Amino acid sequence: MNVFLYGPSGTGKSTVGKLLAESLALPWFDMDSEIEKESGHSVETLFGSLGEAAFRDMETAALKKIISENASSVVSLGGGALLREQNRQMAEGSGRVVLLSGSLETLLSRLSADSYVRPLVQEDPRQRLTDMLAKRREHYASFGRAVETDGKTPQQVAEEVQIQAGVFHVTGMGKPYDVLIRAGSLDELGSAVRQRGLNGPAALVSDENVAPLYAERALASLAKAGIEATGIVIPAGEQHKTIETVTRMWEGFLKAGVERNSVVIALGGGVTGDMAGFAAATFLRGVPWVNVPTTLLSMVDSGLGGKTGADLPQGKNLIGVFHAPSLVFSDPAVLSTLPPDELRSGLAETLKHGIIADPELYQLCKNRWPQDIDEVTNLVSRAVAVKVNVIRVDPFEKGLRQALNLGHTAGHGIEKASDYRLSHGECVAIGMVVETRLAEAIGLAQPGLTQEITAALSKLGLPVEIPAGLDRQAILDAMQLDKKRSKKQVHFALPESIGKVKTGVIIEDWQRLIQL
């Protein structure tokens, strides 16, 4: 898939384009440079000798060539390249257009520092740029929310573009993989799988809740792309996250004729993704897999990072392997069928990501669940960005990635003690309150942080206290078995403030200090 950077001169499309292409491991094309290479003349000369209309013809030809030769790339467009409807249709039909913007003063400052003089603003830049912005205001506004570049470094802008485009590239876990987020994209699953060189015979794993809603569409999309696939339906729920269910998948793979160069596709929530990924990792000593998360929780957290596995009677995720997917493919539109309690469960993890590293995401979550699909997609993408950035730095959970476990040490203990009657998100919500209270007790968190986080979770309809009937000792015992132990000591990830978490915190007498 192509990502097109568009907007007025001076917004940094070329500088950002280079960084974005590097981050996404894609080729980068600068439209003006491509035209200059093809014609042998500078854009300034072409404008002067041929006029703007002829130059726009050259833009059309250059854009058509880039798109026809590259299924995935980053393209920095000229400031008026999409004024022509044909060009806009080509760009939007082959990828995502992200608009960059900036204040007049910022644009003028950047243009004055640039050795390249744009033809349309070379005489009296301030007035020409003012007139151009006024003339194109409606045109630029038609592309939706722009990425503001004022006061941001090119790297920060590139990161915001990834959020806006819903495109990420994860490295550090062996073979890199892409994360794609786009509303209404489920019917494009087959082509996305095919573009990554994955083939059948394939197995599509979904549970008994998700399969009736989306399996048929997914299978039809795979068939349209020429991928033979067999559906495998498993029982729904954490209580079925067992080796017995994994065995059922292995048997399904055999019946489907899955080979080492085939692909396993997980269509569902975190339980389905964890188990299908684990089954793929261990079948024929490892086959590729694609994750298609259908819950908010799996889109923003459990569906990313390649952590696969199953539960034992003694605790969650005590068996498993790191097996990175070949692709994570998210369609936020499917969240419209998610039950309210599942949505709240996912919001706990989404809010957690804001607490870890993105105060803006935290504020968005506090405003409750958006109704507009573009706002939903933006919320999902911002949450994904937090986890992807952490995974890039610490793919195998040696240090920074432990920040993602905020609320999980206590949360998993509560989940186990409730015999999984409480959802994962509910337990993480309570766990964040318990662990923030602990952080305040040892002087790590700023005073009042527990009250702030408690209020935010309550506003979302999430629980903030352990139910009265749960055995407190059972919670402590389960926490002692937490998979983040090292040398028989529990390592906590505790918040210091909104946007900052400290990992690897060892508290000798934590069982005395913790308030359950």
What do the pLDDT scores average to? 90
Number of strands: 16
Query: Residue share in helices?
Result: 40-55%
What's the main sheet like? 7 strands, mixed
Oligomer: single chain
Helix count, per DSSP?
A: 22
Q: Which geometry do the CA atoms define?
A: globular
The N- to C-terminal Cα distance equals 49 Å
The helix-and-strand class reads alpha/beta
* Residue share in β-strands: 15-25%
Q: Identify the CATH class of the largest domain.
A: Alpha Beta
As residue ranges, the low-confidence spans are none
Strand order within the widest beta sheet: 6-7-14-11-10-8-9
Please, how many domains?
Answer: 3
The assigned CATH architecture of the largest domain is 3-Layer(aba) Sandwich
Whole-angstrom Rg = 25 Å
Any idea of the CATH topology of the largest domain? Rossmann fold
What can you see in these coordinates?
The protein is an alpha/beta fold. The chain folds into three domains: 2-153, 3-Layer(aba) Sandwich (Rossmann fold), CATH 3.40.50.300; 167-338, Rossmann fold; 395-513, Dehydroquinate synthase-like - alpha domain (Dehydroquinate synthase-like, alpha domain), CATH 1.20.1090. It is 48% helix and 16% strand. It contains 22 helices and 16 strands. The radius of gyration is 25 Å and the shape is globular.
